[in-house]
Design goal:
- The longest helix is centred in the C-terminal third of the chain and has 21 residues, at 148-168.
- By secondary structure, this protein is α+β, with helices and mostly antiparallel strands.
- The protein has one domain (3-168): Electron Transport, Fmn-binding Protein, Chain A (Pnp Oxidase, Chain A), CATH 2.30.110.
- 24% of the residues lie in helices and 32% in strands.
């Protein structure tokens, strides 16, 4: 049976720290808008306090999460145990994209290993923290993080990344505003 938590601490914090990946889901307000679900990894997740978390948003082909957060702030982050005892943890909350130039960007980005091509830090204020059984989640063996995104960003360099962001990250698939360029 699932459980609600007042904050992220103790065994829950330890569980989250052991996971190699997490999933982020958002949606636009429009009923016919596209729901977005993205897998994340590369040591990009941090617990800031009992009810606040953040993750590093790296440059990619879409900008859905950031655009949805700018429109309505709704977000859920999910962790699944692919190794060990079954468990799922969901963090429902209100998110915000802290982009370069924001007063808090440098302080937040310093909590993560440096990643060329960082677009923003997504900060989430959790209003519901829960777990569930995870009995249907398969057992999978972790082999390592893929190095494609860091290698791609390093090859491009800051100027080409900026050009890519201007071309690919200015608007979401539904036409919502993306990065402030």
């Amino acid at each position: 049976m699932g459980k609600l938590f007042e904050g992220i601490e103790g065994k829950l914090e330890e569980f989250i720290a052991r996971q190699h990946m997490f999933f982020v889901a958002t949606a636009p307000l429009a009923g016919d808008g596209l729901v977005n679900l993205s897998p994340k990894g590369l040591d990009t997740f941090r617990i800031l306090d009992l009810r606040t978390v953040a993750y590093l948003d790296l440059t990619g082909s879409g900008i859905e999460t950031l655009a949805h957060l700018k429109e309505n702030r709704r977000i859920v982050i999910m962790f699944c145990a692919f190794e060990g005892p079954p468990k799922i943890v969901r963090l429902h909350g209100e998110g915000e994209a802290i982009e370069p130039g924001h007063a808090e960007f440098e302080e937040l980005v310093a909590r993560f290993p440096p990643h060329e091509g960082t677009r923003s830090v997504i900060r989430v204020h959790c209003r519901r923290i829960s777990d569930s059984c995870g009995f249907g989640v398969p057992l999978l063996a972790f082999q390592g993080h893929r190095t494609l995104i860091p290698a791609w960003a390093e090859r491009k360099g800051p100027e080409e990344i900026r050009e890519y962001q201007e071309a690919e990250n200015a608007r979401s698939l539904d036409g919502l505003p993306g990065l402030d360029l």
